[in-house]
Automatic annotation (TrEMBL):
Designated name of the protein: FAD-dependent thymidylate synthase
Record GO terms (molecular function): flavin adenine dinucleotide binding; NADPH binding; thymidylate synthase (FAD) activity; thymidylate synthase activity
Higher taxonomy: Archaea, Candidatus Iainarchaeota, Candidatus Iainarchaeia, Candidatus Iainarchaeales, Candidatus Iainarchaeaceae
Organism superkingdom: Archaea
Species of the source: Candidatus Iainarchaeum sp
Gene3D superfamilies for this protein: 3.30.1360.170
GO biological process: dTMP biosynthetic process
A Pfam short name: Thy1
């Protein structure tokens, strides 16, 4: 019996919203010119017409950021979320995780296809789920063996097996297509929704974005028809920046880009390619500026030590990231680092959630190769049977995608069949203030393996060019131990089982378990 494909249309529900959002924006604008705070109940139609138009057309858009809208989204693809919803910093999402939620049904977003190509697409999705199930079973046996070696005196309980199964699906998901459905709560402010609406037809997920964002706008109009009264209509695809760039360039394969990028990586998954040359000095200068001290009164070493040493700066060990609020910690904003990176689509979908470390990610339909181009997790690489299943499916996934494009299906639609393992190449930059938070979180052994390796490589390279800035940096347990904050591991029942706080610099140990 052929397995059923679950592919309903996107479901968009406005769960919570700011009351009277348009009137509130106008009231906020009026408050700027009043000795008191103006309430939304004081706004009349004449104010909406006059002030609303002038503030919007004049670019005075902060008044539209007070209103927020919380949506429940279901039946949206992970490709759409990665390419559009999470590709900018101004949102908040809590998303169903493929790391922890087993994919029992073949639930995917199917692009607009004719009957014959839809059959090809669905056949590919069924094959991906079969590979997913096979890998889950194979990897679970490896994880059982690993667990009993780590805890030789312990018997596996049902609770232990559930945890191990979650670890197995975390790796098995690499074969699942990026068309796979996800669900989330997604919160935006008003101006961000305006911007998404204006550019919802842009590459590379224009057809899905136009449906989802269009419905988000419809939901908001139901509670306040005025909120979109001054907003421009969406730009047609042909007028978007990326579409025009593509039309102006010679079309061809992305193979040369891939070869060039990988050669420049030089074996790294993340290579430091640019940084503030005087990062330590400018950071020390910033500390002195905050405290009003001269170099003679406060030398570089002492200034940096009071900032980055958890024994002196207890904020570093806090679970609540206080960096942007602390005047001294804001000094870390002046050291910048840029990396060329290569991650799987699965790993980067998590990595991009560090939205204060922005990246230039590819328009996927333009940057993917016609040949298999994917990341293999070490948990699969070490098991010959798992690797055979994995590599065989990777070849088939690209075959199916090529079949669609050969049949005339737009590449934007065909890439939905490519797996989570798809290699994504991009440039990422950030200040040390935001990279510090990211590295501490992702150097924990509970972090996804790919992102952990990425973070170790970045930490190692920055240690060579700005050693005094990161000499105390490490996973939370190491930082908290130095800060004398207990418990050293703040993961509770999710403790990894390894005394990482005593390992020393991670780059010198190689103790990370597979």
């Amino acid at each position: 019996m052929t397995e059923k494909i679950v592919s309903g249309p996107p479901k968009v529900v406005l769960q919570k919203w700011f009351q009277n959002p348009y009137a509130d924006a106008i009231a906020a604008a009026r408050t700027c010119y009043s000795p008191r705070v103006i309430a939304d109940t004081e706004v009349e139609e004449v104010h909406k017409e006059r002030i609303g138009k002038t503030t919007f057309e004049g670019g005075h858009h902060t008044v539209y950021t007070h209103a927020t809208f919380k949506f429940g989204l279901e039946n949206v693809s992970r490709q759409f979320v990665w390419s559009f919803l999470h590709a900018h910093p101004f949102y908040n999402s809590e998303q169903s995780s493929q790391r922890y939620v087993k994919l029992n049904e073949v639930k995917v977003t199917v692009p607009p296809l004719d009957a014959a190509n839809k059959k090809v697409f669905e056949r590919a999705c069924r094959g991906a789920w079969q590979a997913y199930r096979e890998l889950t079973a194979i990897l679970l046996e490896d994880l059982k063996d690993d667990y009993l070696k780590r805890f030789p005196k312990k018997e596996l309980t049902d609770k232990d097996l559930k945890k191990l199964e979650k670890k197995s699906i975390e790796t098995a998901r690499y074969v699942v297509p990026i068309a796979a459905h996800t669900s989330m709560v997604h919160t935006l402010n008003g101006i961000t929704l305006y911007r998404l609406y204006r550019l919802m037809n842009q590459l590379p997920t224009s057809w899905e974005a136009s449906v989802v964002v269009g419905r988000m706008v419809e939901e908001v109009k139901k509670v306040d028809p005025d909120f979109f009264r001054n907003v421009e209509d969406p730009l047609p695809l042909e007028e978007t920046l990326e579409f025009k760039a593509v039309q102006a360039l010679k079309q061809g394969s992305s193979q040369e880009f891939i070869r060039e990028f990988d050669a420049e990586l030089g074996g790294y998954t993340s290579k430091l390619v640019a940084f503030s040359p005087d990062a330590e000095r400018i950071t020390a200068d910033a500390v002195r500026a905050v405290l009003g001290k001269s170099k003679q009164e406060l030398g570089d070493d002492a200034a940096l030590d009071m900032l980055v040493n958890p024994a002196k700066n207890k904020y570093l060990g806090s679970s609540l990231d206080l960096a942007t609020i602390s005047p001294l910690m804001r000094c870390l904003n002046h050291a910048h680092f840029s990396f060329k990176k290569k991650l799987s689509h699965a790993a980067d979908s998590q990595d991009q959630r560090h939205r204060m470390v922005p990246a230039s990610r590819p328009v996927l339909s333009l940057a993917v190769s016609g040949q298999p181009d994917y990341i293999t997790p070490p948990q699969i690489a070490r098991n010959e049977k798992a690797k055979q299943v994995y590599d065989a499916w990777m070849g088939k996934a690209w075959d199916y995608a090529r079949q669609l494009t050969t049949n005339g299906v737009p590449k934007e639609h065909a890439v939905y069949l490519l797996p989570n393992a798809l290699a994504v190449r991009f440039i990422e930059s950030g200040s040390l203030l935001n990279l510090w938070h990211k590295w501490v979180m992702r150097l924990c052994l509970n972090a996804q393996r790919e992102i952990w390796v990425n973070s170790v490589e970045e930490f190692e390279q920055v240690s060579k060019v700005a050693p005094r800035l990161v000499k105390f940096l490490g996973p939370p347990c190491q930082v908290r131990k130095t800060a004398e904050i207990t418990p050293w591991c703040n993961e509770g029942k999710l403790f990894c089982g390894y005394p990482v706080w005593g390992w020393g610099p991670l780059v010198e140990t190689g103790k990370r378990p597979v």
